[in-house]
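Predict structure. Chain length: 155.
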Amino acid sequence: MKTKSSNQLKANKLKKKYRFFLNPYPDCAFTKCPKCETKTKVRKFALVIHIEPQQIFLLNKQCKYCPYCELIIAKKQEIEALMTIGFSQDNPQIVGNNYLVMGTIERQDWKQGNQGALSSNDILDRMYIFKDQWDFEVIPAGWYPNDELPEKKNK
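Prediction complete.
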């Protein structure tokens, strides 16, 4: 009989919710979903961000959202600016470090986390990791000959 390791057990307990796209394009607002092309909504999400080395950052951020695809679209420049503001005085050595937007957390958990009532482990236990992280390539608008028509790409 095989037994599961603690990492396998923890991986099975992870709750998954939403898909995510970190928008690197400063001039693209994604008013339409890049996948299904329906209008996106504006909604606030409590994002859980891991910053190297071993720093958890909770950010209540307004993002574009497609309810049909369950896709959250967050602007990379806005997230980086807010992280810089958040850490420039308290922990300036991590400003500019690599980071990963890992998932979301419920609003009440976000409030407790901001008040210091939750440890990093509590946050990780309560968070929803993303089902998938997507990447889209923006194709400039314009006329293209049929044989040179760029294809939409997503991952």
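Summary: The longest strand covers residues 55-66.
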